[in-house]
């Protein structure tokens, strides 16, 4: 347990608990406009096409973005959306859309953000339509009818410190979204009061929601809820069956000794809609950190008792100054968390995660038959690497069962610099192929988000991946051109690997 962390940018404040807790995105200091001139950095060689691999700068702006979920339209695979914590003037959740398979994207500036969340826009002279001081933790998904959904937290920086979980939708593939109040308010999935201070306070602090839409149209939103009364953070799930216009009362999935939880995600069986929830947990009374899974057969109305998936040996923890257990310059980045994906061709639930093995962060994979979450395979290292792989995102192509993964990877630089790798298996994880996606390596400790008169190296806690029959798409945070004197321009990048 560590004390609450206070992060200030201008008048904005976020309070967080715990060494692996996601801090909500806060925008740059509004009193210090960005300089108009730029200098080239590693980004000059990041956008490239080489054979089957294409990399595109999505955000292409002047200030940082990080945390980049990705979703694809089931009715039009050329249409994808990605979200981000946007550190521009809107102080909220950014969004970009493509309609040509990732070759081009809607622009971040001037209006590539989710309306109806914050009081600001990217024009200082134009007020926003939201009620909140800043927003963060983006999550995106498409429904079976092609409607796009975006979940984002809104945070109030002054008493009573309200925190609200909002859902927006788009019927044109992500070009436009609900305008916000008063004409088109976003849907409130849940709301809390309190500043998130830990034990001894009545504050509430929800963290890192995830969004999933099943083939039957059920919308699942899940998050970890810090109670403010202790270190515990049970997992909650809220569902919508009317296109995100209303949500059920949130269901608490975890209880008893399994309460200090984070990093919840949901996937569903595309055939019958069975929902699977995964999360990680600091074992109460034990010595390790574990991952758990739960199942719902009634569209999220009830959930099974959580079953243990696997134990971490030494979880990756990148939360300086409280923890940083890999080599090199320190930065805030993804740690160890479970990533679920469902394979209907094998009727199995797969979970990937990172763990430090023999001194280096590696990707591990385990799986269970969909009908027996009490029995998991022995975790195996995926395509053992010569450098740290600090995070993993995974999806499975449902027609073939091909397992697709991506990771921030130090294998191409003597374990010193970052690249993005694509790692795939066509045989259920028996064998793997690895493809370097990025063309230029970079040092995440040398770039960051605005933090007063300096920077905070923070590349975000998650990336994005989608699987298609003949390609895979990935989004991540990487360095952009420097505007002014500080390297505070982290960009969203999209990579495509074609087969």
Describe, in plain words, how this protein is organized in 3D.
The chain has 499 residues and is an all-beta fold. It has strands at 5-9, 12-16, 38-39, 48-50, 53-57, 65-66, 70-73, 76-86, 93-98, 134-142, 148-155, 163-170, 187-192, 205-213, 219-226, 235-240, 251-252, 261-268, 275-282, 289-296, 307-311, 318-319, 323-324, 339-343, 348-357, 360-369, 380-381, 393-397, 402-409, 419-425, 433-436, 449-451, 454-456, 464-468, 471-479, 482-483, 490-498. It has a single domain, classed as 6 Propeller (Neuraminidase), CATH 2.120.10. It is built from no helices and 37 strands. It is globular. Mean pLDDT is 88; it is low at 1-37.
Distinctive features:
499 residues; mainly beta; Neuraminidase; 5-stranded antiparallel sheet; 4-stranded antiparallel sheet; 0% helix; disordered N terminus
Uncertain spans, ≥5 residues at pLDDT below 50? 1-37
In the CATH hierarchy, the third-tier topology is known as Neuraminidase
Give the distance, in angstroms, between the N- and C-terminal Cα atoms. 46 Å
Average predicted confidence as pLDDT: 88
Q: Strands of the largest sheet, in order across it?
A: 4-5-37-35-34
CATH architecture classification name = 6 Propeller
Give Rg in angstroms: 21 Å
What fraction, in percent, of the residue positions are helical? under 10%
